[in-house]
Design a protein that fits this description.
Elements lengths: L2 E10 L12 E9 L4 E6 L3 H9 L2 E3 L2 E2 L1 H5 L7 H10 L9 H21 L3 H4 L7 E9 L4 H12 L5 E5 L7 H15 L4 E5 L6 H11 L4 E5 L7 H10 L4 E3 L6 H9 L5 E4 L6 H14 L4 E3 L5 H11 L5 E7 L6 H5 L10 E3 L12 H7 L3
Parallel strand pairs: 6-7, 6-13, 7-8, 8-9, 9-10, 10-11, 11-12, 12-13
Antiparallel strand pairs: 1-2, 2-3, 4-5, 6-14
Helix pairs in contact: 1-4, 3-4, 6-7, 8-9, 10-11
């Protein structure tokens, strides 16, 4: 089997609101083969920048469009192709956009392997640790504490055992920060776990103060309270509070995950399959976390392609803690792009059983939302 083509397709809602909601657009990757098997992947990043990284021309030995590197290659050779793409983009591809682009391609390559062998990706990765995994509903804070309470009450009736609120007005005012968390807890009640995603707003001292204040409301974890590069701040915060500190979604290379773990002393390692280098790298990141006695969780606020990929990965590692499942209201792109719609049952997500990723594009919807 040989790779014959690579597509990078930008899709978007007609209106993209200025809020931290990456489910409003997407970059879909399709890898075609001479046997008629097509693998799909997704990248959550700056879509057109990623598209350029994939479709751009060869420039020189350390800068090349990824498609150029893949044509004629065997899609089963995922480890080799990962390193070929990385080495051939050592200028621009070691972090960020380059790794993001590689992530979507790697995901599509594993989808091809699973389809060819008629096996789900988690089985190819040697997984099988669980039939289902607990998930949390992931939403943005309301514009006010009162609005947050209303959102919490609505979600509390949907069967989730954990809910995460994030970003929005968090970080603008100390009293409002605490009120947002208090009202989220009020709306959820005492039995549902509350997770807080701060959205990178504070320095270490402020984060320690907020962690102490939020602990009154029994939060499950405090996510990304600091800049991702503030390893010293993360260390100080982790040492100062018993609250779990979660981070990692901004990372796109194993060595930065290592710094976050070893220097930052975080408690939960969050990995986005569409940013970190795909399955090939995510397995190594999970092993790195396990070597340090840490659990992993996925990050994903985009389409069901990302959700499905994360489930395969979480089923392939022993240290999976919980799965993120986006429940943001009025973000409809994910409900259109795939033929399958993933739903939580009793607060859990079932593991995919179909070959490959086990999810298919709705080509009419892709055409509808495709941006020329």
């Amino acid at each position: 089997m040989k790779i014959t083509d690579v597509e990078a397709i930008y899709v978007s809602l007609p209106e993209v609101k200025e809020q931290c909601d990456s489910g409003q657009d997407a970059l879909i990757v399709k890898v075609h083969t001479d046997e008629g098997i097509t693998g799909i992947g997704e990248v959550d990043s700056a879509p057109l920048a990623v598209r350029g990284m994939i479709l751009g021309p060869y420039s020189h030995t350390t800068s090349s469009g990824l498609k150029h590197l893949l044509i004629g290659e065997d899609p089963f050779e995922t480890e080799y192709l990962w390193h070929k793409m990385y080495r051939a983009n050592i200028y621009a591809g070691r972090f960020g956009i380059g790794l993001h682009a590689m992530s979507g391609i790697d995901m599509a390559l594993w989808d091809i392997k699973g389809k060819k062998l008629r096996m789900p990706v988690w089985k190819l990765l040697g997984g099988g640790f669980r039939k289902s995994i607990r998930c949390y509903a992931s939403v943005l804070f309301g514009n006010t504490p009162a609005e947050t309470a209303e959102i919490a009450r609505r979600i509390a009736g949907q069967g989730f055992t954990a809910v995460k609120f994030g970003w929005g007005p968090m970080g603008q005012d100390a009293n409002q920060d605490v009120a947002l968390v208090a009202k989220a807890r009020e709306g959820l009640g005492k039995e549902i776990d509350l997770l807080v995603d701060a959205g990178l707003p504070w320095d270490a001292k402020t984060a320690i103060q907020r962690a102490q204040a939020f602990s009154e409301y029994g939060i499950f974890w405090l996510e990304e309270p600091l800049s991702p590069d503030d390893y010293e701040g993360y260390r100080k915060l982790s040492q100062a509070t018993p609250v779990r500190i979660a981070a990692g979604e901004e990372e796109s290379a194993r060595n930065t995950f290592r710094r976050l773990i070893e220097e930052g002393n975080i408690d939960v390692v969050q990995v986005d399959l569409t940013r970190c280098g795909g399955f090939t790298e995510a397995m190594k990141i999970a092993a790195l976390a396990a070597d340090h006695g840490l659990p992993v969780a996925n990050h994903g606020f985009t389409t069901y392609i990302n959700v499905c990929a994360a489930l395969h990965w979480l089923n392939s590692v022993p240290n999976a803690l919980i799965a993120e499942f986006v429940a943001q209201e009025n973000t409809n792109l994910r409900e259109f792009l795939t033929r399958q719609k993933i739903r939580a049952k009793n607060g859990c997500l079932e593991m995919p059983q179909e070959p490959g990723l086990g999810i298919d594009l709705d080509e009419q919807a892709v055409a509808r939302f495709r941006v020329a």
